[in-house]
Design brief:
Blueprint: H1 2-28, H2 31-37, H3 40-48, H4 53-59, H5 65-91, H6 99-106, H7 110-134, H8 138-149, H9 155-167, H10 174-199
Helix pairs in contact: 1-2, 1-3, 1-5, 1-9, 2-8, 4-7, 4-10, 5-9, 7-8, 7-10
Length: about 200
């Protein structure tokens, strides 16, 4: 039960970060500042040791393969639940425009999605490793700000962006969305495993 709650609240946290990014961008039109405030999401995950799918690719890597896959699948589902619930609630207060974000993501080729998602989670898991090494948020904050600034694909943050898109009645193809999330998830897993590989060398 505790693991489920931590997974749900990880989705909640990243959704808060995504909304912070979107609202800051909308109010200031400053992409650098907007990228910086996104860190509140991962900051909460690290502070409360929550189960974030992308981070758990790295931290659960010592489990046997079957248990590893099962745990990641469960965390993914509960992250999605937390993200969608948070998006629906915050949407009652803020209705940010995500059409450009979604169109840009769905406009990528399949290999570009995987490359972007791989680089994203390489940076996310590197940020987690930095936090575990130094026990402060400065270095992780910088690394996360860079991944957001570069627009890399983070599957849990994208749960919020696409949920907002559906609430905004943006014309989004369900098939294209499913394909995108499959490819993004694959890329995020590859990125996390790259950090595991380097970390074990």
């Amino acid at each position: 039960m505790k693991g489920r709650v931590k997974s749900i609240f990880a989705g909640v946290s990243i959704s808060l970060g995504a909304f912070a990014y979107l609202i800051t961008l909308q109010k200031t039109n400053n992409i650098f500042l907007s990228s910086c405030v996104f860190y509140i999401g991962l900051g909460l995950v690290l502070t409360y040791k929550l189960n974030l799918f992308t981070g758990q690719v790295f931290t659960l890597s010592k489990d046997d393969k079957i248990k590893y896959a099962q745990n990641l699948a469960k965390i993914f589902i509960y992250n999605l639940l937390g993200s969608v619930i948070t998006t629906i609630l915050l949407y009652q207060l803020y209705k940010p425009d995500v059409s450009n974000i979604i169109n840009n993501k769905l406009g990528l080729s399949w290999y570009a999605i995987i490359i972007s998602a791989t680089l994203c989670n390489f940076l996310v898991c590197s940020a987690i490793k930095l936090y575990l090494m130094f026990c402060n948020h400065i270095a992780p904050w910088f690394v996360i700000s860079i991944f957001v600034l570069l627009g890399f694909n983070h599957v849990v943050a994208d749960m919020t962006y696409f949920s907002i898109g559906f609430l905004n009645n943006i014309n989004i193809s369900i098939i294209s969305t499913i394909n995108y999330f499959i490819l993004c998830t694959i890329g995020n897993i590859i990125g996390g495993l790259l950090v595991c590989y380097i970390n074990n060398k």
